Amino acid sequence: MSEDFQPESEVPDYLKFDLEAAADRLHQLTVVGRWLLILFLWLTLGTWSLWSLRNSIALLREYFTWSAIRYGLIFNPIPAIGLVICVAMTLSVLIWQSRNILWGLPLHDRDQLKKRTIAIRSKGRQHPLWRWVFGAD
After folding, report:
1. Could you give the CA distance from residue 116 to residue 68 in angstroms, rounded to a whole number?
2. Considering the entire predicted model, what is its pTM?
3. What is the per-residue pLDDT across 109-134, written as a single tens digit (0 to 9) for each?
4. Looking at the domain assignment, is residue 12 inside a domain?
5. Is 68 inside any structural domain?
6. Distance between CA 40 and CA 7 in Å, rounded?
7. Does 4 map to a domain?
8. Smaller CB count within 10 Å for the chain: N or C?
9. SS3 for the chain, per residue?
10. pLDDT band at 15 (very low <50, low <70, confident <90, very high)
């Protein structure tokens, strides 16, 4: 027998669990965490950016032209950057989640989730994600 093989009785307790189910719960936590980050960005940076652009938006409501959009963003660069960050982060999460729904998780991502799940399990109950990944195990 090789040195890496361990009979079932010699496997440490932290490795005796359903790895696939725990990795799926960790993935769900990742998805929820990303959407909470997007919500936080829109509630803070997005709201501030839109409020700072309120004069340009009022002008756009009366005379909508592409040049009005362009100059509204050019002459307000900081709020424009904040708005771009919010839109870009939202689109990146939408594309990431759509890819995972349509084609499933890539093997590399699945392996990383499994490694993180094992790391959480080996750290034990003091890990902050323990109760969400493993519940009352």
Report:
1. 48
2. 0.80
3. 999 999 999 999 888 889 999 899 88
4. no
5. yes
6. 48
7. no
8. N
9. CCCCCCCHHHCCHHHCCCHHHHHHHHHHHHHHHHHHHHHHHHHHHHHHHHHHCHHHHHHHHHCCCHHHHHHHHHCCHHHHHHHHHHHHHHHHHHHHHHHHHHHCCCHHHHHHHHHHHHHHHHHHHHCCCHHHHHCCC
10. low
